[in-house]
Write a structure and sequence with these properties.
It is built from 8 helices and 7 strands; from the N terminus they run βαβαβαβαβαβαααβ. It is an alpha/beta fold and 268 residues long. The protein has a single domain, classed as NAD(P)-binding Rossmann-like Domain (Rossmann fold), CATH 3.40.50.720. 43% of the residues are buried. Bound molecules: NADPH dihydro-nicotinamide-adenine-dinucleotide phosphate. NADPH dihydro-nicotinamide-adenine-dinucleotide phosphate binds next to helix 1, strand 2, strand 5 and helix 6.
Length: 268
């Protein structure tokens, strides 16, 4: 079995208070890393802090920092970086995960909605990346991983703005990889299909038929969307790909992506 010891290393996971980000923080803590997470909801961050209190390498206390920070606010992001710098003094891995999708067609996406979506998908990555680059540059083995969506390559009509913004992010990830490779900073992404998480729970609550269970609703959607593996992914399954791309397990991989979609991609 391959095992990796991240003791002494520091990971920053944006949007680490739920879903994929939370599962990633847990994996990194278990491997011995210190982890800083952020989100906008202070109460949820404190709850997560409690739930991760016993997650760490065997016999070691986890070193978790959870700070309120909206990745779209330059001030919040620089405050988050300052706290990470003061508390841990380094950053080796940055996981740009914070965000959510937008359900809308071209016909019903307003200019304002387009701007909001493009701002979230671009600046949700640009601001944390810019803020943490100085610390990453000082790391012996630095990496950046972006959580992206298969929509980047396979757009869907009902998510037109998100699909378009995701394609731009895929392109930006490649540019960052090219620009930062001479500084040994690897930049990769994961393209996910449907992963059970906070945003799908919210859609279930608003869209499920009366009496329909979560299992019935997700199984029906998996059939409707022709997911070859026949189910939604679990946050841990996305987190494992993020873990691989964040750590030296993927030391010769940059400018690349891993699909975590249950086989739903149609291209070869
Ligand atoms: P969740 O809703 O479970 O988690 C999203 C996390 O991001 C929360 O911690 C949330 O905390 C945080 N967040 C959202 N907006 C901001 C913000 N502006 N600043 C800081 N934190 C923020 O969703 P997922 O785990 O599913 O989402 C993770 C990523 O995966 C997102 O980027 C999403 O778009 C992407 N994705 C997910 C898919 C899926 O099927 N689950 C499919 C394709 C992409 P808070 O609300 O407190 O700020």
């Amino acid at each position: 079995m391959i095992s990796i010891d991240l003791s002494g290393q520091v990971a920053v996971v944006t949007g680490g208070s739920s879903g994929i980000g939370l599962a990633t923080a847990r994996l990194l803590l278990r491997a011995g890393a210190s982890v800083a997470i952020c989100g906008r909801d202070e109460a949820r961050l404190r709850e997560v802090e409690g739930s991760l209190a016993d997650t760490g390498k065997e016999g070691e206390k986890p070193l978790l920092l959870a700070q309120r920070c909206d990745v779209l606010s330059e001030e919040d992001v620089s405050g988050f970086e300052a706290t990470v710098r003061a508390r841990f003094g380094r950053t080796d891995m940055l996981v740009n995960n914070a965000g959510q999708g937008r359900v809308s067609t071209f016909a019903n996406t307003s200019d304002e909605a387009w701007r909001e979506e493009l701002e979230l998908k671009y600046f949700g990555v640009i601001r944390p990346t810019r803020a943490f680059l100085p610390l990453l540059r000082a790391s012996p083995n630095p990496s950046i991983v972006c959580v992206n969506s298969l929509l980047a390559m396979q757009p869907e009509r009902h998510m037109v703005a998100t699909s378009s913004a995701r394609a731009g992010l895929l392109n930006l990830t490649k540019s960052l990889a090219n620009e930062l490779a001479p500084e040994r900073i690897r930049v990769n992404s994961i393209l996910i299909g449907i992963v059970e998480s906070g945003q799908w729970r919210r859609r279930f609550e608003s869209q499920a038929k009366p009496g329909q269970s979560w299992e019935e609703w997700t199984a029906a959607l998996a059939r409707e969307k022709n997911i070859p593996l026949g189910r939604f992914g679990r946050p841990e399954e996305a987190a494992q790909a993020l873990f691989y791309l964040s750590t030296s397990l993927s030391s010769y991989t940059t400018g690349s992506h891993i699909e975590v979609s249950g086989g739903v991609a149609r291209h070869v």
